[in-house]
Specification:
By secondary structure, this protein is of the alpha/beta class. 35% of the residues lie in helices and 23% in strands. The chain is built from 14 helices and twelve strands. A nine-stranded mixed sheet has the order 5-6-7-3-8-9-11-10-12, sandwiched between helices. Helix 8 links the parallel strand 6 and strand 7. The protein is elongated. Adenosine-5'-triphosphate binds next to strand 1, strand 2 and helix 1.
Length: 326
């Protein structure tokens, strides 16, 4: 099977600070993954690990410092530029930011139809918009003439998804799509992603802090820390049998009913984000309960342990070295 989206050694370096005291931060560090049609690929990890930067490079909002992104391999009928502009769509965290409060919501839907010339008359446009709104559990009648403030966050997120469906995308990138939606309706949106994956055979790049929804969506997961993929493989396997000490800590800290379990409480932060990014060796060494001397000096290689890739010195002798793509 051909992957619908691939990254190879994708890297983004940011420089921060003044001209005289500049820090070089590798926000995304040689990230390589591939995603299939009809599959969810989750990027997970705590705040500032490089998830959004990865998504922004894939969407063309940010230029990679090095590495490659390969779009739509195996879909020959699309020119790469057309594929990129139409076949990949995104839904963001805050639906209230996506829509201007002074503008009727339907305006956004018609704008997309006009931009991509998806209909030749107003009636045809309405019909298309209605079909996409129905796909997310709404209808044109419910949306027409109304302003963003007349909808809940969950409804706006659905409208945002409907808008992205207008062009029949092959890939949907969803960056924290449910984190600002009420917990009570969060699962209905997650279920909607499952349906889009199954019924429309879409690839979904799901970005989240929430391992429970990632588990529920299935597919593959990459656990990121300070720009690095620490562990990557089938989500069920990675989360039920985590190998990397960082994944183990993250899993224990899934915020459940007990608010004390929030991961900030569980993982002691010995260094600042800046210090971790600048650290030599494994970025997680400062917090790792199983840290060894070598971890502080040398970056571990990504090794394959029973079909899961792990970037940790504990596994270097146990797995086979995963070949970096060149
Ligand atoms: N334009 C920028 N200039 C400088 N540094 C940046 C820029 N964008 C992101 N960063 C830094 O890159 C790192 C990764 O940020 P990113 O937003 O990708 O993380 P994230 O995993 O999406 O976090 P969150 O879960 O909070 O959304 C952070 O240290 C961030 O401060
Ligand atoms: Mg982010």
């Amino acid at each position: 099977m051909q992957p619908i989206l691939e990254t190879r050694n994708l890297t983004k370096v940011f420089h921060r600070g003044s001209l005289l005291a500049r820090d070089r931060i590798v926000a995304v560090d040689n990230v390589t993954f591939s995603m299939q049609r009809g599959e969810v690929f989750t990027l997970a990890g705590e705040s500032g690990c490089g998830k959004t930067t990865t998504a922004r490079m894939i969407l063309g909002f940010e230029q990679p410092t090095s590495g490659e992104i390969i779009y739509g391999k195996g879909e020959e009928r699309w020119h790469p530029r057309v594929w990129f502009s139409q076949r990949i769509q995104a839904v963001f965290q805050n639906p209230f930011e996506t829509f201007n409060p002074l503008r009727k919501v339907e305006g956004y839907l018609f704008e997309t139809v006009n931009h991509y010339k998806l209909a030749s008359s107003k009636a045809e446009a309405e019909e298309l918009i209605n079909s996409k709104l129905e796909a997310v559990g709404l209808s044109y009648g419910e949306v027409a003439g109304r302003y963003p403030s007349e909808f809940s966050g969950g409804q706006l997120q659905r409208i945002s998804i409907a808008r992205s469906l207008l062009v029949d995308p092959s890939v949907l990138i969803a960056d924290e799509p449910v984190s600002m939606v009420d917990a009570s309706i969060r699962m209905s949106i997650v279920n909607l992603f499952r349906r889009l994956r199954d019924e429309l055979d879409m690839g979904i790049l799901y970005i989240t802090h929430d391992l429970a929804t990632a588990y529920y969506l299935g597919g593959q997961i990459a656990i990121m820390f300070r720009g690095n993929t620490m562990e990557m493989g089938p989500v069920q396997e990675v989360l039920t049998n985590p190998r990397h000490p960082y994944t183990q800590l993250l899993r224990e800290s899934i915020p459940e009913a007990d608010p004390e379990k929030k991961w900030r409480g569980r993982i002691s932060i010995a260094e600042t984000e800046q210090e971790e990014y600048l650290r030599e060796g494994c970025k997680f060494a400062g917090r790792c309960p199983q840290v060894m001397e070598i971890c502080k000096k040398q970056v571990p290689e990504l090794v394959d342990v029973d079909g899961v890739q792990v970037k940790c010195h504990l596994y270097v002798d146990r797995g086979s070295v995963h070949e970096e793509v060149s």
